Amino acid sequence: MKKYGVELILDMHGCSVETFTRSSIQLFFEELCDLIDMKREDLHFWDDVGVPNEEKQTSPHTQGTSAVQFILTSSIVIHALDQLEAVYINIFSCKEFDPKLTEDFSKKWFDASECKARFIDRN
Predict the structure, then answer these.
(1) What is the model's pTM?
(2) Which of 20, 22, 35, 80 has the most CB atoms lying inside 10 A of its own CB?
(3) What are the extents of the domains in the chain?
(4) H-only helix segments in the chain
(5) Are 41 and 30 in contact (CB under 8 A)?
(6) Average confidence (pLDDT) over 26-47
(7) Does residue 57 have a pLDDT over 70?
(8) Is CATH 3.30.2290.10 the right assignment for the domain spanning 14-49+59-122?
(9) How far is CA 97 from CA 31, 48, 72, 122, in A?
């Protein structure tokens, strides 16, 4: 079976919530796409205020800023979760890119103290 593309999955913890703003995330996409030679297309944001539970408190696993940066060869999705100080990134592309360079750049950008990366072939 021929490989269709690749996907990098990053789970980062201990991140700096100051980097979770729309302007910071937009700049992250711009610099990352330049770094890994991806052509940016549409960018879409949404802010999740959290799902209220019975006590009317927000749920930490949903509260934060998310975005999809479409790229010519697919997409980059990010979820920056304030209360968890965590960032989750999925980069799916039919064009090859350097996963280690991408991981190191992302970890530095969000000042993550911990990062788990998985790189898979998509068939």
Answers:
(1) 0.91
(2) 80
(3) 14-49+59-122
(4) 22-35, 99-109
(5) no
(6) 97
(7) no
(8) no
(9) 14, 30, 13, 14
